[in-house]
């Protein structure tokens, strides 16, 4: 797949933080010099509303981090229950050791039509955020912390519309994931309204 | 309540990151000069394993942030479904305007026995992390980002034991919360194993 799926609808930038506000595990993608990689990250969060910023921890050992540093960009894709095995797979294998990592784990995706060098937006995810790195050498070196300015965002309209998640009306396989350890996640659960 | 509840058991520091790994909303507490405050924060994450560190975003307008800056400490408490209304309450009201904020929202808690000036560990939560601020003026000023080194951690043994969450065996009211917006959360949901 290389074209945006029809159910992936743009999200207004002032609502982009809501895609991460509930603390889901994410996939981090980067592309440089025609090389793509994707890894999993449990440690990410929104950092600002306007302009929308995100923070994500990328270990120095990862090839994705090298691509992020070279290209100055990354994407976050928010995986679903249906992608739990892929998420563990790309979070375990390194492209430094496993040359066909993305193919092995069945990672496919799309890119904005006018941006063929964008990081891969992973198919089957519930939301996507395309970010430019806000370069901060101290944070990157001392804390492995990368800050991104969100330039565009999309979400699967079956679970996110009108600036809100609506998991109740969709199959369980479209719920987002919250990683614990050792191949175990919790799915996003019941809605609680105050 | 001022004594640690019997079900609040210590968590080994090398497992403390797991208390936040699944992306729950947290309560942030601080105490300075015998003044306590508690606020809610959806934007927090683990930042390191060893020593365990956490990151949390604290807006400049908050009184809790002022207490954190004065005391150099904060605590994170991980609220449960049973505390959803309190969590919205302390996330909405500011102690700058509402002098009896904690009493109004029924916030009670405990402190380590040998540390009477510790930030409040909020009763009814599922886990607690006591942190020293790792002072970083740029992050605090530019990003409202505070980094804490976790000095001690506890969890409710009914939902966390052996270094893992076990929500399946406990009442729904003990599940943790993931904030969306406008008084809506998602509870931590079904376990998904790969």
Give an account of the 3D structure.
- Two copies of one chain form a homodimer.
- With 194 residues, the first copy, chain A, is mostly beta strands.
- Chain A is built from four helices and 14 strands.
- Chain A has helices at residues 63-71, 84-92, 101-104, 137-143, and strands spanning 8-10, 26-32, 35-41, 44-49, 52-57, 73-78, 109-110, 121-122, 127-134, 145-156, 160-161, 164-165, 177-181, 184-193.
- In chain A, strands 1, 2, 3, 4, 5, 6, 9 and 10 form an eight-stranded antiparallel beta sheet that branches. A two-stranded antiparallel ribbon of chain A has the order 7-8.
- In chain A, a hairpin with a 2-residue loop joins strand 2 and strand 3 (35-41).
- Chain A is globular.
- Chains A and B meet through strand 4, strand 5, helix 2, helix 4 and strand 12 of A and strand 4, strand 5, helix 2, helix 4 and strand 12 of B.
- Strand 14 (184-193) of chain A pairs antiparallel with strand 14 of chain B, so a sheet runs across the interface.
């Amino acid at each position: 797949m290389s074209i945006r799926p029809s159910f992936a609808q743009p999200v207004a930038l002032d609502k982009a933080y809501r895609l991460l506000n509930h603390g889901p595990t994410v996939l981090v993608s980067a592309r440089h010099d025609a090389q793509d990689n994707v890894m999993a990250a449990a440690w990410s969060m929104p950092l600002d509303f306007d302009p929308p910023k995100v923070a994500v921890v990328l270990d120095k050992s990862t090839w994705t981090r090298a691509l992020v540093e070279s290209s100055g960009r990354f994407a976050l894709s928010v995986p679903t229950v249906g992608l739990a095995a892929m998420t563990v797979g790309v979070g375990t294998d390194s492209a430094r050791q496993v040359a066909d990592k993305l193919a092995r784990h069945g990672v496919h995706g799309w890119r904005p039509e006018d941006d063929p060098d964008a990081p891969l937006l992973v198919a089957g995810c519930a939301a996507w955020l395309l970010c430019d790195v806000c370069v901060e050498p101290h944070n990157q070196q001392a804390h492995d912390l990368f800050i991104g300015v969100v330039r565009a965002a999309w979400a699967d309209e079956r679970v996110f519309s009108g600036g809100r998640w609506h998991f109740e009306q969709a199959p369980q396989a479209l719920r987002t994931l919250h990683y614990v350890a050792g191949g175990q996640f919790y799915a996003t659960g019941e809605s609680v309204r105050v």
